[in-house]
Specification:
Length: 201
């Protein structure tokens, strides 16, 4: 089965005023679709054409060398964006509860310190990329990635990622990436992040 863009699990304008409808339309319908189309084109006719994208990204050396960069970029783009849409919801935000809250406090000192670190990593990502909360096998960490590189390819489990490509925020925030990240916290679906944490732990 070729990859496909999953339907957005809420309306395009559901995350307003934090993320605007036009950005969501272009980001989901155009950018994510392009990653899917290019990933499918790169994998077509290879033994990996029916492999879930996470399994492909876990070991990129299994991808034929001539296709590897295209799969890294576009397969990564597909996986990252699929997770991104599901990490947000209207009326989200607040703070995580339970075991995830405890693990964040243990790893970073406090939820506020975690937020500061994820934001700093996103703001300081030069050019395009992501800032991630990951489970690295022993505990939680914040890592950045360039372009569409997935933490999966480094042996880590992504729990939450903020897209800091300009296409994610430029229409509403222009060059103000820090303001976009500040607003993005208001739409994070912590219940979804907690599910991933439980599965990873
Ligand atoms: Mn994007």
């Amino acid at each position: 089965m070729a990859y496909s863009v999953p339907p957005l699990p809420y309306a395009y304008d559901a995350l307003e005023p934090h993320i605007d409808r036009k950005t969501m339309e272009v980001h989901h319908d155009k950018h994510h679709q392009a990653y899917v189309d290019k990933a499918n084109a790169a994998l077509e006719g290879t033994p990996l054409a029916d492999t879930p994208v996470e399994e492909v990204l876990r070991d990129l050396s299994q991808v034929p060398e001539a296709k590897r960069t295209a799969v890294r970029n576009n397969g990564g783009g597909h996986a990252n964006h699929t997770m991104f849409w599901e990490s947000m919801r209207p009326g989200g935000g607040g703070e995580p509860q339970g075991a995830l809250a405890d693990a964040i406090a243990q790893a970073f000192g406090s939820f506020a310190e975690f937020q500061a670190k994820l934001k700093e990593t996103g703001v300081n990502q030069f050019g395009s990329g992501w800032s991630w909360l990951v489970h690295d096998g022993s505990g939680l960490a914040v890592v950045g990635s360039a372009n569409q590189d997935s933490p999966i390819s480094d042996g880590r489990t992504p729990l939450l990622g903020v897209d800091v490509w300009e296409h994610a925020y430029y229409l509403l925030y222009q060059n103000r990436r820090p303001d976009y990240i500040d607003a993005w916290w208001n739409v994070v679906d912590w219940a979804k992040v907690a599910e991933r944490f439980e599965a990873a732990g």
